[in-house]
């Protein structure tokens, strides 16, 4: 992003929580990745696998994010 100290993860969280965008799933969020690995019993999650899950959850990725945070165990 063009703002110092504001990265991709921060921008994605603003899109979800402030701008109410319905289709945001952040690869940069460790809890979301952990939620996916817990849900599907994976030992690790590659970027390609993540993108397949993102496509599966679309156009409701932001709702999926909320559930994945819960499943992350954090």
Q: What do these coordinates show?
A:
The protein has 74 residues and is mostly helical. The chain has one domain (8-71). The chain has 4 helices and no strands. It has helices at 8-17, 30-40, 47-57, 61-71. The longest helix is centred in the middle third of the chain and has 11 residues, at 30-40. 16% of the residues are buried. The model has no long low-confidence stretch (mean pLDDT 96).
- How many domain regions? 1
* Distance between the amino and carboxyl termini: 27 Å
Radius of gyration: 12 Å
Task: Please tally the β strands and state the result.
Answer: 0
Mind describing the biggest β-sheet?
A: none
Question: What layout of secondary structure does this protein have?
Answer:
Layout: H1 8-17, H2 30-40, H3 47-57, H4 61-71
Helix pairs in contact: 2-4
Task: Kindly list the characteristics that best describe this protein.
74 residues, mainly alpha, 4 helices, globular
Provide a compact summary of the structure:
Helices cover about 60% and strands about 0% of the residues. It is mainly alpha-helical and about 70 residues long.
